[in-house]
């Protein structure tokens, strides 16, 4: 290829074809393919008229409905003042705050005029139309076209429209309403006969529902729903009210409850067979019980020892709330039942009727007993405070002892001897109760704690075998006792274990506690006495779930169960926790007492003024 040809190609590449530099009439004509005459193959073009409405403000930047309405009202007041200033008239102003009064420097003549009811009403209408134009733009365009055309040429809403099946109309202000069957009932309020239609997923609607939720005390959803229906028609209003209530910070703080994790598996100390009764023991106090000593009345406490495996109990009397008295009660228990391998107890908060000093004494008793009886063969476990469900196996036996003692009480005064006898009777009655169900037709007695303590069934005489020699007698008696014990433990495994295997509550999973969570430490039913704290350390159980945590409060660092920790989830939502406690702006009404003297928020920029003038 020659140099001249290459130069021509480069010139056409950078300058284009020669006909481009000529008149368009001299350009070559494009030959179109023949038209398609088949009807089913013809192209169909659908033209749809869409109007995108530009929003003049961001609703998400305002926290409350009454502030939103007042802000729009101030914008309209600003536009009106600009026009009054152009006509040489004095502007209308509101009462400024102390900070605003120091910053205002102007020579304009002003007249203090509170916001009028008409201005509030106009601001609400603008907000309603803004929300409706975002969600129901096609429906509004269809209604306006139908109003301008003959009834025979009316078009219906699309099948995908959320408002299909409703009779719609636009009022004189351009607000979309529902034309219901009660439109002719002139004795009813206008908004009740022709309610305003608002979209569900819109910031204006959410602020409005939030206002009604706070206005009626954050209480009943049905009340909020009924009040909204007096003026508005909101699709799926129930789910919207529930969503607003879930995001309300006031409700999160004042209505939150602890999330209890799934019930843990039973500890191994409750499922260990072929052990001597009272190898694993739960210790708790009961009382006080008044006894008569001479001419004076003294208090006695009952120490309840519960076997965690066979659910047997042993009762001892403590003459006072001292560590030495508790130690002596445990020593008497050991002399009669044998030493225990592990002791379990709470921190004494179950004495609800006791004073603060008595609770402190009880905690000191448990600490002293733990120091006394903890060694290489014995261990003492403490449950977190205020967690009776962690010691339910002995807490339930305490309740049973109270019930039996109330049955044995004949109304007369007790002395120490009668108290000891009553406790022995109660202990035998409770230890004779069946652990499993036995049908009436069965010849085998139901398992009871006394069968493990005594080695025989209740009311069954002990057969005495006359031995022929000492060695044979010892071998037969030992084998017979071992066989009886093995049979009872096999029945315990087959009959009792399945009865406690199923969970009766706390089945599902809950949100796990996180380090750094702000929580309420739940103590009692009165929320006013709950204190706040921060989770500093998580205590993970053997199954990987968090059931205890170390919480730091203004009083120090404490160990608490997650069942007593209510997490404050305040990451989103209304940041004003007492928004519903003060009088708010009534929708469409003027409350001078609420408006006068409060700081105003104005977004009076030039582009906002232009948008408002266009909206008018």
Task: Itemize the secondary structure elements and their pairings.
Blueprint: H1 3-15, H2 65-86, E1 91-93, H3 98-103, E2 110-112, H4 117-135, H5 137-148, E3 168-170, E4 176-178, H6 190-193, E5 196-197, H7 203-215, H8 221-229, E6 232-233, H9 237-247, H10 249-255, E7 280-293, E8 296-307, E9 313-318, H11 323-337, E10 342-345, H12 356-373, E11 379-382, H13 392-408, H14 416-431, H15 449-454, H16 470-501, E12 518-521, E13 531-540, E14 546-553, E15 556-561, E16 565-567, H17 592-595, H18 606-615
Parallel strand pairs: 1-2, 5-6, 7-10, 10-11
Antiparallel strand pairs: 3-4, 7-8, 8-9, 12-13, 12-16, 13-14, 14-15
Helix pairs in contact: 2-4, 2-18, 7-9, 8-9, 11-12, 13-14
Write up what this structure looks like.
- The longest helix is centred in the last third of the chain and has 32 residues, at 470-501.
- 38% of the residues lie in helices and 14% in strands.
- The chain has helices spanning 3-15, 65-86, 98-103, 117-135, 137-148, 190-193, 203-215, 221-229, 237-247, 249-255, 323-337, 356-373, 392-408, 416-431, 449-454, 470-501, 592-595, 606-615, and strands spanning 91-93, 110-112, 168-170, 176-178, 196-197, 232-233, 280-293, 296-307, 313-318, 342-345, 379-382, 518-521, 531-540, 546-553, 556-561, 565-567.
- α12 links the parallel β10 and β11 (379-382).
- It has 18 helices and 16 strands.
- Strands 9-8-7-10-11 form a 5-stranded mixed β-sheet, with helices on both faces.
- With 616 residues, it is of the alpha/beta class.
- α7 packs across α9 (237-247).
């Amino acid at each position: 290829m020659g140099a001249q040809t290459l130069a021509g190609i480069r010139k056409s590449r950078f300058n284009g074809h020669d006909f481009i530099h000529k008149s368009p009439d001299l350009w070559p004509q494009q030959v179109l393919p023949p038209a398609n005459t088949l009807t089913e193959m013809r192209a169909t073009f659908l033209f749809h008229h869409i109007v995108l409405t530009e929003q003049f403000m961001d609703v998400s930047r305002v926290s409350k409905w009454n502030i939103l309405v007042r802000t729009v009202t101030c914008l309209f007041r600003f536009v009106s003042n600009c026009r009054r200033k152009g006509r040489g008239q004095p502007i209308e102003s509101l009462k400024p705050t102390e900070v605003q009064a120091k910053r205002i420097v102007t020579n304009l003549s002003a007249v203090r005029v509170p916001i009028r009811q008409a201005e509030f009403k106009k601001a609400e209408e603008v907000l309603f139309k803004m929300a409706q134009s975002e969600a129901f733009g096609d429906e509004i365009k269809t209604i306006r076209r139908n109003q301008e055309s003959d009834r025979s040429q009316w078009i219906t809403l699309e099948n995908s429209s959320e408002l299909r099946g409703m009779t719609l109309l636009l009022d004189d202000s351009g607000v979309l309403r529902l034309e219901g069957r009660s439109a002719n009932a002139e004795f009813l309020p206008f908004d009740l006969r022709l309610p305003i239609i608002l979209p569900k997923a819109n910031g204006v609607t959410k602020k409005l529902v939030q206002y009604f939720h706070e206005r009626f005390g954050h209480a009943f959803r049905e009340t909020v729903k009924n009040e909204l229906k007096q003026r508005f028609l909101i699709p799926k209003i129930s789910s919207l009210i529930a969503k607003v209530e879930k995001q309300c910070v006031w409700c999160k703080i004042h209505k939150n409850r602890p999330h209890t994790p799934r019930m843990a598996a039973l500890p191994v100390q409750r499922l260990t067979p072929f052990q001597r009764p009272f190898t694993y023991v739960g210790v708790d106090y009961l009382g006080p019980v008044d006894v008569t000593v001479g001419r004076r009345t003294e208090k006695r406490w009952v120490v309840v020892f519960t076997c965690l495996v066979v659910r047997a109990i042993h009762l001892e009397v403590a003459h006072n709330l001292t560590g030495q008295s508790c130690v002596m009660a445990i020593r008497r228990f050991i002399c009669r039942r044998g030493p225990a391998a592990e002791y379990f107890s709470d921190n004494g908060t179950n004495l609800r009727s006791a004073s603060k000093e008595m609770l402190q004494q009880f905690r000191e008793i448990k600490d002293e007993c733990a120091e006394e009886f903890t060694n290489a063969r014995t261990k003492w476990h403490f449950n977190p405070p205020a967690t009776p469900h962690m010691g339910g196996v002995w807490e339930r036996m305490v309740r049973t002892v109270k019930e039996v003692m109330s049955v044995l009480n004949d109304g007369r005064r007790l002395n120490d001897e009668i108290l000891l006898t009553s406790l022995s009777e109660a202990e035998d009655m409770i230890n004779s109760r069946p652990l499993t169900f036995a049908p009436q037709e069965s010849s085998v007695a139901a398992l009871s704690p006394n069968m493990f303590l005594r080695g025989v069934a209740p009311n069954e005489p002990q057969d005495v075998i006359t031995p022929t020699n000492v060695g044979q007698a010892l071998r037969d008696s030992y084998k017979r006792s071992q066989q009886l014990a093995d049979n009872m433990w096999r029945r315990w495994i087959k009959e009792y274990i399945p009865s406690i295997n199923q969970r009766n509550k706390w089945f599902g999973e809950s949100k796990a506690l996180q380090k750094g969570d702000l929580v309420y430490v739940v103590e009692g039913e009165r929320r006013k006495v709950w204190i706040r704290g921060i989770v500093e350390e998580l205590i993970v159980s053997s199954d990987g779930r968090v059931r205890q945590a170390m919480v730091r409060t203004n009083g120090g660092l404490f160990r608490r169960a997650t069942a007593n920790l209510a997490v404050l989830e305040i990451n989103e939502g209304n940041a004003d926790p007492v928004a519903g406690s003060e009088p708010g702006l009534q929708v469409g009404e003027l409350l001078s007492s609420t408006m006068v003297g409060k700081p105003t928020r104005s977004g009076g920029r030039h582009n906002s003024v232009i948008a408002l003038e266009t909206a008018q």
